[in-house]
């Protein structure tokens, strides 16, 4: 069974940090570009960041640029999102997703391109 499972979410105060992890089972992430998305009730799912298959290319949305960092560990079949200086507006359900892609050095932040999705994990930033 192909699965992506997020972990590391929770409640944090403004200015704090969290690291989200997304582990794959049943398939290797080596053939996939990866993305992090987030969604709040009543709004569309928003692309946060993505990373290419070879890890060379990353993109970030303007709202989190300079605060979040995405990385991947091929050996652990896992992708990470380091979130620093968190703000209340970062509160959302965060999803990781995998996009099967032949090109090594590209990724996209368009949700419809993605083939597999995690179940989502809540991140709440509040004092």
Summarize the structure.
This protein is an all-beta fold and 127 residues long. The chain contains no helices and 11 strands.
Explain what you see.
The protein has 127 residues and is an all-beta fold. It contains no helices and 11 strands. The strands form 2 sheets. Strands 2, 4, 5, 6, 9, 10 and 11 form a 7-stranded mixed beta sheet that branches. The chain is globular, with a radius of gyration of 14 Å. The chain starts with a strand and ends with a strand. The model has no long low-confidence stretch (mean pLDDT 97).
Give average pLDDT, whole number.
97
Q: What percent strand?
A: over 45%
Instruction: Categorize the overall geometry.
Output: globular
| Secondary structure category | mainly beta
Radius of gyration: 14 Å
* Unreliable parts: none
* Count of helical stretches: 0
Number of strands: 11
Order of helices and strands: EEEEEEEEEEE
Largest sheet composition: 7 strands, mixed
Straight-line N-to-C gap: 39 Å
Report helical residue fraction: under 10%
Summarize the helices and strands and which ones pair or pack.
Layout: E1 3-7, E2 10-12, E3 18-25, E4 32-39, E5 46-51, E6 58-60, E7 68-73, E8 78-83, E9 92-100, E10 116-117, E11 121-125
Parallel strand pairs: 2-11
Antiparallel strand pairs: 1-3, 3-8, 4-5, 4-9, 5-6, 7-8, 9-10, 9-11
Throw out a few tags for this protein:
four-stranded antiparallel beta sheet; seven-stranded mixed beta sheet; 127 residues; 11 strands
């Amino acid at each position: 069974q192909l699965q992506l499972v997020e972990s590391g979410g929770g409640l944090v105060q403004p200015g704090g940090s969290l690291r989200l992890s997304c582990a794959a089972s049943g398939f290797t992430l080596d053939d996939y570009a990866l993305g992090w998305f987030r969604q709040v009730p009543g709004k569309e799912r928003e692309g946060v960041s993505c990373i290419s298959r070879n890890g060379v290319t990353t993109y970030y949305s303007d709202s989190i640029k300079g605060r979040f960092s995405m990385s991947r560990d091929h050996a652990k079949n896992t992708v990470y999102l380091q979130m620093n200086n968190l703000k209340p507006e970062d509160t959302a359900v965060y999803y990781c997703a995998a996009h099967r892609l032949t090109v090594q050095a590209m990724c996209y932040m368009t949700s419809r391109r993605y083939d597999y999705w995690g179940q989502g994990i809540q991140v709440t930033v509040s004092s």
